[in-house]
């Protein structure tokens, strides 16, 4: 049928586009490698609304990188809901429809079970400086846990905190008996649901956008969140009590699609990492200021503020202690190691900063 010459021509025609594609894509699969002169538009998504802590963080990054590169690199920010739900945002980050995002372990736990470490109550310190140091430096986070993100196609920049978690309720919650059967809303991940079961509550994984209405209509009795989020979401309008429970801190992570990130010129990768560190350092103070502002405003509302005593906190801590083993069993490979190292790092930082 085909002459030898025609067959060779056919093979060449089939192989040519593959060869050209491979040359043009250097070390990445589907994204063209960029040079440090190229203009870059970063699509940056997060899980909160305009003016919330994640939004301030994303805007600071935008401001600094656009200024530093005189507009060669620009950032478009997508707030929650603009790209669908939080699960959709995570999928878009993995598929490369979004380049960078702030994504919390409260939403990523089912895809990267090891991140559930961030959802263990009473694990972190009451000293914000200790938490800052551990979140900024721990080898458990930037070694083993970062590898787990990498396996899912994600590059981790920083883990950081949005502040202490508080409970709100339609009744006081100061001792375990108060928590019994209470419909407590937490972010939709197994470690949080299990923790509230251990505390005796009836945990609810209500969508973020429905918390206000559910609190108003009695579909849920209480919820946990940092102060800025409680105030900005107007939960003080539909709850009677605010418990300074300090049972946890809200932790989140700034990440990028790995393929996109490695397609950037090395200088740009370095620049993004440096600016991200600067934003992260700034976020620690910004987050505390947002917490103080929210507290000042909440004090003007009808919400009654109750500070739990050390003994009261201890009684919840004892109840929820078995969650450590749940994490080791369900947190996937490396979970036990991550937990061990992070506990050691917290202890070491407590010693150093006391
Ligand atoms: O509770 C939640 O669902 C939300 N809380 C915070 C502080 N950020 C994002 C998340 O959607």
From TrEMBL:
PROSITE patterns: PROKAR_LIPOPROTEIN (PS51257)
Keyword Magnesium: no
Similarity comment: Belongs to the bacterial solute-binding protein 7 family.
Protein name (Swiss-Prot/TrEMBL): TRAP dicarboxylate transporter subunit DctP
Domain of life: Bacteria
A Pfam family annotated for this UniProt entry: DctP
Entry's Gene Ontology BP terms: transmembrane transport
Lineage: Bacteria, Bacillati, Bacillota, Bacilli, Bacillales
GO cellular component: outer membrane-bounded periplasmic space
First and last residue of the signal peptide: 1-22
Keywords: Signal, Transport
Keyword RNA-binding applies: no
InterPro entries associated with the record: DctP_fam, TRAP_DctP, TRAP_DctP_sf
Organism of this sequence: Planococcus donghaensis MPA1U2
């Amino acid at each position: 049928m085909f002459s030898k010459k025609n067959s060779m021509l056919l093979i060449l025609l089939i192989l040519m586009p593959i060869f050209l594609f491979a040359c043009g894509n250097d070390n990445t699969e589907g994204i063209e490698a960029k040079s440090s002169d190229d203009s870059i538009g970063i699509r940056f998504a997060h899980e909160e609304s305009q003016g919330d802590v994640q939004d301030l963080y994303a805007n600071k990054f935008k401001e600094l990188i656009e200024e530093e590169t005189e507009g060669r690199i620009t950032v478009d920010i997508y707030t929650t809901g603009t790209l669908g739900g939080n699960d959709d945002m995570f999928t878009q980050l993995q598929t490369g429809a979004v380049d960078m995002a702030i994504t919390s372990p409260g939403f990523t736990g089912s895809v990267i079970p090891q991140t559930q470490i961030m959802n263990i109550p009473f694990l972190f310190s009451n000293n914000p400086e200790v938490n800052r140091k551990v979140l900024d430096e721990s080898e458990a986070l930037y070694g083993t846990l970062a590898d787990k993100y990498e396996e899912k196609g994600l590059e981790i920049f920083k883990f950081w905190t949005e502040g202490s978690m508080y409970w709100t309720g339609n009744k006081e919650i100061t001792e375990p008996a108060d928590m019994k059967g209470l419909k407590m809303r937490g972010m939709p991940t197994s470690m949080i649901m299990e923790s509230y079961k251990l505390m005796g509550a009836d945990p609810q994984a209500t969508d973020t956008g429905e918390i206000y209405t559910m609190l108003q209509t009695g579909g849920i009795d209480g919820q946990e969140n940092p102060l800025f989020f409680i105030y900005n979401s107007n939960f003080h309008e539909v709850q009677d009590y605010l418990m300074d429970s300090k049972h946890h801190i809200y932790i989140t992570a700034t990440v990028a699609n790995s393929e996109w990130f490695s397609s950037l010129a090395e200088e740009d990768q370095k620049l993004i990492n440096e600016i991200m560190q600067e934003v992260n350092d700034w976020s620690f103070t910004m987050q505390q200021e947002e917490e103080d502002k929210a507290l000042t405003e909440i004090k003007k509302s009808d919400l009654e503020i109750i500070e739990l005593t050390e003994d009261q906190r201890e009684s919840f801590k004892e109840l929820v202690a078995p969650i450590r083993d749940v994490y080791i069993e369900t947190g996937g490979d490396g979970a036990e190691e991550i937990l061990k190292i992070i506990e050691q790092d917290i202890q070491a930082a407590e010693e150093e900063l006391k």
